[in-house]
Amino acid sequence: MNQSLKNIFILVLIALSSFPVVVLCVLLLTGNARIEFGSRAKKPLAAQQVEVLPHSPGTDSLNSQNSKTFQALEQEKNDIAAEKRQIAEKQQGLDLFQHDLDGRKADLEQKRAELASLVIKDDSVAGKKMRQLSKVYASMKPVEAAQIIGTLPDKTASSLLDGISDDRQKAKIFAALSPDKASELTRFMTGIRHAKGDSVAQ
């Protein structure tokens, strides 16, 4: 019994005496502690000297060049930002101008559509009146109709003659016209028909 107590006591003493060594080894291995010998040992603060870097004109020149380069880069960056702002402003102006043009284009299209509608209506009214006049001339005596048609412009005369559906009545009116007027109307009417893509025979 005494022997076992003695052994336990010895083990406790060994453990207590080896604990600081184990802790030191762990600190050294983890890099949290360092042992320096001789001249590399840390000097007290009073003995430390401040190391002054050597000063040379080359260093000043390099620093000055770096400063100028930095300033040039900053200036270029500011110039680019200013140009971007100008481009954005011009783009905004162009967008407004394009919007205005689109509005005017829409207005012009609407007015053109209104004009086309009026022209079509006018043409239909004029065509209706021309057809009515053609019926009147078809019911007249050919000689009387020829006397009046002979005084009309070629376009009006040809429209009236085209509106007469009775070919025999139309032929009698042509025969009653003067040869010059009949020839002129024939050339005019065949010219119109050629322009429309019809043949002279039609």
Query: How many strands?
Result: 0
Low-pLDDT regions: 198-202
What's the alpha carbon Rg, rounded to whole Å? 58 Å
Number of distinct helices? 6
Shape: rod-shaped
The N- to C-terminal Cα distance equals 149 Å
Strand content: under 5%
Largest sheet: none
Q: Supply the helix-strand structural class.
A: mainly alpha
Keywords:
single chain, 202 residues, mainly alpha, 6 helices, 0% strand, disordered C terminus
Question: Could you walk me through the main structural features you see in this protein, from its secondary elements to its overall organization?
Answer:
It is a single chain. The protein has 202 residues and is mainly alpha-helical. The protein has a domain of 67 residues. It is built from six helices and no strands. The chain is rod-shaped. The termini are far apart.
Provide a concise account of the structure shown.
The chain has 202 residues and is mainly α.
Describe the SSE topology:
Layout: H1 2-30, H2 57-139, H3 142-149, H4 154-163, H5 167-176, H6 179-195
Helix pairs in contact: 2-4, 3-5, 4-6
